Amino acid sequence: MGLLDILLGRTKPVAPDLDQLFGLPSAAVTLEAAAGFRPTGSGAVCFATVEGGAFEQTHREVQALLDADAEREGPPVRLSRDGYGYSWLVSERTPDQLPELVNDLHAVNSAMEVNGFGPQLLCSLAGFENLEGRRLALVYLYKRGTFYPFAPLPGAQQRRDNPLELRVKAALGDDLRIEQDLNRWFPLWGAPGL
Questions:
Q1: Rounded CA separation 47/29 (Å)
Q2: Looking only at Cα atoms, what is the longest distance across the chain?
Q3: CA 39, CA 120: separation in Å to the nearest integer?
Q4: What does the alpha-carbon distance between residue 147 and residue 159 come to, in Å, rounded to a whole number?
Q5: Residue 179 three-state SS
Q6: What does the radius of gyration of the chain's CA atoms come to, in whole angstroms?
Q7: What InterPro entries has UniProt attached to this entry (predicted)?
């Protein structure tokens, strides 16, 4: 970054660091101890919708890679579209298979990145739930290399539990690289895997 960039307030974008995803299993232990949330086994990768043969080939490659996992039951990754026009590759595991789910999310992100779809990647999430059935997602922002919690309020139309999100932020500060700019804690209404 040059002097002119500093004077004009331009910054270099943070390079994605997919290895940050591997911090989720240890963060899950902290999250359960601090707030009572356990993994659901659901996770997803969100990206700007991509059409065409190159994406279909990438999807088949990811499917074949994850099908090779003998412990998986059912389809490893399903493609879903939300009401906002974004696409999601959703992976389902059992709740005790968070490390395997993280491997799935990493593999999907890596395959898309290697095949030229990195600019379309937006985020990945892993779902959590407490004993009362409250849902929470730990969201990884691909372009920022950071995480944030997203906790929709049950039964409320597009409202979130900000105090819970801030408690989770404080609890996981030593486990994950948390996004400090709260304006980047985007709501993921109706996200698959949550």
A1: 28
A2: 55
A3: 27
A4: 20
A5: coil
A6: 17
A7: PspAB-like (IPR054383)
More confident residue, 98 or 69: 98
Quick: pLDDT tens for 30-55.
999 999 999 999 999 998 877 777 77
| Spatial distance between the Cα atoms of 162 and 143, rounded to a whole number of angstroms | 23
Residue pair 112/47 in contact by the 8 Å Cβ criterion = yes
| Per-residue confidence (pLDDT) for residue 13, from 0 to 100 | 55
> Of the candidates 152, 155, 120, 154, which has an alpha carbon nearest to the alpha carbon of residue 139?
152
3-state secondary structure 21-57: HHHHHHHHHHHHHHHCCEEEEEEEEEEECCCCHHHHH
**91 and 101 Cβ atoms separated by less than 8 Å:** yes
Q: Are 105 and 21 in contact (CB under 8 A)?
A: yes
Rounded to an integer, what distance in angstroms lies between the CA atom of residue 187 and that of residue 190? 9
Q: What angle do CA 28, 120, 189 make, to 5 degrees?
A: 55
Over residues 52-80, the pLDDT tens digits come to 777 777 777 777 777 676 565 656 678 88
